[in-house]
Design brief:
Layout lengths: L2 H14 L5 E2 L8 H12 L17 H11 L1 E5 L10 H14 L3 E2 L1 E3 L6 H10 L4 E5 H4 L9 H10 L3 E4 L12 H10 L5 E3 L7 H10 L4 E3 L6 H4 L9 H6 L4 E2 L11 H9 L6 H15 L8
Parallel strand pairs: 1-2, 2-3, 4-5, 5-6, 6-7, 7-8, 8-9
Helix pairs in contact: 1-12, 4-5, 5-7
Keywords: Lyase
InterPro entries: ACMSD, Amidohydro-rel, Metal_Hydrolase
Protein name: Amidohydrolase family protein
Length: about 300
């Protein structure tokens, strides 16, 4: 399939639903040196990946932006994340500059448990950050680390959503899984968390959190695809609750770091059993539009 064929097929899906496009809450744009290291890690099938993982959209930054636009992605993110101290503030500076030059990118920031974190997180919020990224697995930190208490308080007060990779897929980390997030939400129940990857493989427990709290959302990133179904399939027993949580399901792709096409990611969601067009309009666009207060009418 050519790039044009794929773009046409993607656009056909959302246009037939009566949508103006897609909002993708889980895409990655990073400084080139960081992205190159991420791609090298995937190429080596490192321990957090554990299997061959070809990068489908390994192109330069400008081409990747234009690819999303060709798909009709109306808003996307530049999810950056640190794996060590003294990295997050620099990533935030880069991401703010990227967003200023890319108006369809929701301005993104991140953090790490370190002494200066509350200050640079508050500065990012004041500067217009629309979404934060937290990667518990790669960062290898406890989301309940006392150094993050001021961070979570500032984010909760601002109402800024956080895309958080906290499930134990593709490989478990020291602090992944539902229990650390339950403890975090007990202290900060207003946190607008977007649980990345549907919380795989702890789908049921993260669905519980979503259904129990209006503030918790789940993103579809990589879930339901043939690639993930080989090792971490979404259990059929949870499908009724997935449909019930429809207003808090948001589409994510993990573009460009996916081992299959964007069309495959989209079809994995639109092919879910029992979901209707209203559910799909919410997941692909309207739920995120509400969450980010975007003036993007769906009709």
């Amino acid at each position: 399939m050519t790039d044009t064929d794929e773009a046409d097929a993607v656009r056909r899906i959302w246009s037939e639903l009566g949508l103006p496009g897609i909002i993708d809450v889980h895409t990655h744009f990073m400084p080139k040196s960081v992205m190159d290291k991420v791609w090298n890690y995937f190429d080596s099938a490192g321990p957090l990946v554990g299997r061959p993982w070809p990068i489908t959209y390994r192109t330069d930054e400008a081409h990747r932006v234009e690819t999303l636009r060709a798909f009709g992605v109306r808003r996307f993110t530049s999810l950056v994340y640190p794996h060590k101290p003294d990295m997050a503030a620099w990533l935030n500076q880069w991401a703010a500059q990227f967003a200023s030059q890319t108006p369809d990118c929701l301005s993104t920031a991140t953090f790490y448990p370190e002494l200066g974190a509350p200050d640079y997180v508050s500065a990012a919020i004041d500067a217009g950050t629309r979404v934060f990224k937290a990667h518990i697995q790669v960062g290898d930190y406890d989301p309940n680390d006392p150094l993050l208490e001021g961070v979570w308080a500032a984010i909760a007060d601002s109402g800024t959503p956080v895309v958080i990779h906290c499930g134990s897929g593709p490989q478990p980390g020291r602090f992944t899984g539902p229990e650390p997030i339950r403890r975090l939400l007990r202290r900060h129940p207003r946190l607008r968390l977007i649980i990345a990857h549907m919380g795989m493989p702890e789908y049921g427990e993260f669905l519980d959190m979503c259904l129990d709290s209006q503030a918790v959302h789940l993103d579809t990133t990589m879930a339901f695809t043939a690639f993930i179904d080989e090792s971490m399939p979404f259990p059929a027993e949870h499908e009724p609750r997935l449909r019930a949580a429809g207003e808090r399901i948001v589409f994510g792709s993990d573009f460009p770091n996916i081992p299959y096409g964007y069309l495959d990611a989209l079809r994995a969601v639109t092919g879910l059993p029992g979901v209707d067009e209203k559910w799909l309009r919410g997941a692909l666009h309207d739920n995120a539009a509400r969450l980010f207060a975007l003036a993007l009418p769906s009709d």
